[in-house]
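Supplementary Methods S3. Complex input for the adenosine-5'-diphosphate-bound model.
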Amino acid sequence: MIQLNNITKVYKTKNGEFTAVNDVNLSINKGEIFGIIGYSGAGKSTMIRLLNGLEKPTTGSVIVNGEDIAVISGSKLRAARQKISMIFQHFNLLWSRTVEENIAFPLEIAGIPKGERAKRVDELIELVGLSGRGKAYPSQLSGGQKQRVGIARALANNPEVLLCDEATSALDPETTESILELLLDINKRLGLTIVLITHEMHVIRKICHRVAVMEAGKVVEQGAVLSVFQSPQAEITKKFVSQISDSNETKESIEQILSNYPTGKIVRLTFIGQKTEQPIMSQLIKQFNVEVNIVHGTISHTTSGPYGTLIVQIDGEKENVEAALNMLAQHEIQTEVIEHA
Ligand code: ADP
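Predicted complex, serialized as structure tokens:
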């Protein structure tokens, strides 16, 4: 659906050249929700502008639906861009127009006749859960409702790709959840391809199928969300993953655990997908005659299944503890023994 081949974007600035995107290769499948995560300055916004054709790459190609949007221009580019729609962090609504009029705006530009427009606007209002609010002005709406208008407007001309530029970053956590649910629902119902940029890992966890991690213009890691969560490779990815999975797990709390449980082995187990920890724990106890204490646990849910970490103390005869650890490794559970520093 979307293919970025060896994309580099160099900006010319007063102080010389600056490489904002550096040799990026990405391939985004039709119907998937693809997340690009990175801290400020990583190059995410530049990527979005390259994807919607607002910016041309210095080198490389941006193939959308078989067409290189980096080389086309004029009416061909306009036609290609009609298939790509966007929502924004600060909504970018027209403040002097009502909800209905905001949603109708792209339809007017596309020359859709009035009657048809009204029908489409009604459908869209219903789709995003704003029934009854059509005559309201943006200033009368909550943040979440404003983003719903943004989403309805973005969907008006039946795009194939929806780009989301930090679409939930200005919203409180509860509203963020409801907007992410709406995006998931639209992705499923319409089969819409969604590409989002964010600096928040919980957004990736909640709705993305695959993720690319950007740092200083480069994609340092990419893959299925569950596998990135299970075994993040790059340091920056580990930091993002720890934003959610280990939120209560600090160096101090680990030291505390180690001093509270001075014997046996303290082990961090990572479970992904449908595997549940319960049967494995009881098997450990029965089969190896060890004592297992659950010290700390978190579980998160991704679009492809649950992901959890559990810190346990395994105590008993040394060989039994070793045998138990071996068994865990054979179950393809990621096992990490935590020792005193
Ligand atoms: P992000 O969205 O991840 O914060 P950006 O893509 O906005 O990152 O920016 C990446 C880097 O490129 C930043 O250091 C930024 O200053 C620089 N940059 C972005 N746009 C321009 C531009 N038009 N001219 C010069 N430098 C730019």
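Residues 246-340 form a domain with the Alpha-Beta Plaits fold (CATH 3.30.70.260). Residues 111 and 270 are 54 Å apart (CA to CA).
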